[in-house]
Amino acid sequence: MIKRWGLSAAALLLTAAVILPGCASKEESPKEAISSSAKEALTMTSYEMKSVLTINNLTIDAPAGAGDETTGMVLNMLQNADISINGVHQSDPMQTELTMVLNLKGDMAMSFNIPMVLTTDKMYVKIPSIPFLPLPETIVGKFLELDPKELAEQQGVGVTPGTVDTKKVQDLSNEVVSTLLGEYDEETYFKNVKPEDAGLPEGVDAKQVVQFQVTNSNVKEALTILVNNALPKIIDILGKEEYKEMLQIDEAKLADIKQQLQSGEARAEFDKGLADLDSYLTVNNFQLNTAINKDDFPVYQNLLMDVVVKDPEQGQNINLSLTGTNQYSKINEKQTFVIGIPQGEDVVTMEELQQQFGGMSTY
After folding, report:
1. How far apart, in whole angstroms, are the C-alpha atoms of residue 355 and residue 363?
2. What pLDDT sits at residue 158?
3. CA atoms of 216 and 311, how far apart (whole Å)
4. Inter-axis angle of helices 166-182 and 2-19, to 10 degrees?
5. Residue 17 contacts by C-beta under 8 Å, 6 or more apart in sequence?
6. How far apart are CA 35 and CA 37, in angstroms?
7. Ordered DSSP codes for 332-348
8. Sign of CA dihedral 224, 323, 19, 243
9. Considering the chain, what percentage of its residues have pLDDT values greater than 90?
């Protein structure tokens, strides 16, 4: 069951991720607007941003059984829960501040506020005070210093923020977005929405709003296009000489993935899952609106998703409805950093953190 509906959900979210940067300055056709503006969005060198993801509904309809009490408690906490990220970014010199806030609701409502700072070679995460997890008072409120390069080496990954070629990343993104969008029919999946009808928040001045939509009637076609047409071409892009070293990609593994993807066995399994998709997934709503300002930048995105994931063998249905927004401002302007780069006594290293926890275990 997981394989059958998981591919569907992943495809929807992948499509959302690559559409998010898109729109264009003139009243172009929707597909042209998104394709041409993907390049423009990648020229943003500094900005303020605010993202919010809210779970409007999460329910599980299933036969009564063990674990119902725990499941009910979790669902109660997640109902109407939201996560927001406010941030400031500049590329040169590289510095990013992010403050993530997680609000859990229900009978055990709680809130977590986690500021983070990223530079070219360091990442700092403020240690929060967490209910039910007693942390030493000597470290609560301090910033844990992490070295992305060391973490990458420990995990066998060669790509770190300081080693990534920004220009190549932009080129790669452009190729992937253009290839993916090129496979989808404009009349079926894209349309312009009048800015005054798009529900834009106050202060967002948009010249054009483009909507990408997947419905229950075209979700099978959308998945078929992604798996059979787009993914093999995207794999070829990832295997280009100019990207392989940057991404530390094994060419043989890429070739193996593509071969498996296009094998008769994989196609047969995918076709079977697709034929039965109605039994496992219902798309009530999946819309992504992207608004641009007069300077061609995507200043606001709004995602609406309402799906039902079904498991007929277990007699279980999961209803999930969520909304997401992403807003940019002060694009390519001089930024003001509130937190700054943590220093001195405000910083605790991973070794010091481990020593603190080791001390706790002796009591």
Report:
1. 14
2. 54
3. 17
4. 120
5. none
6. 6
7. TS----SS----GGGEE
8. negative
9. 43
Structure tokens at 100: 């993530």
Q: Where are the beta strands (DSSP E) in 67-207?
A: 82-90, 95-104, 110-119, 123-126, 143-146, 190-193
How many Å from the N-terminal Cα to the C-terminal Cα in the chain? 47
The pTM of this model reads 0.78
Strand partners, 88: 48, 97
Average pLDDT over residues 43-52: 92
Task: Read off the amino acid at residue 127.
Answer: I
Q: Which residues of 172-182 are buried (b: 16+ CB within 10 A; e: fewer)?
A: bbbbbbbbbbe
Q: What is the CA radius of gyration of the chain?
A: 23
**Distance from C-alpha of 321 to C-alpha of 284, rounded to nearest angstrom:** 9
User: What pLDDT sits at residue 153?
Assistant: 72
Among 143, 319, 168, residue whose Cα is nearest residue 248? 168
pLDDT greater than 80 at residue 225: yes
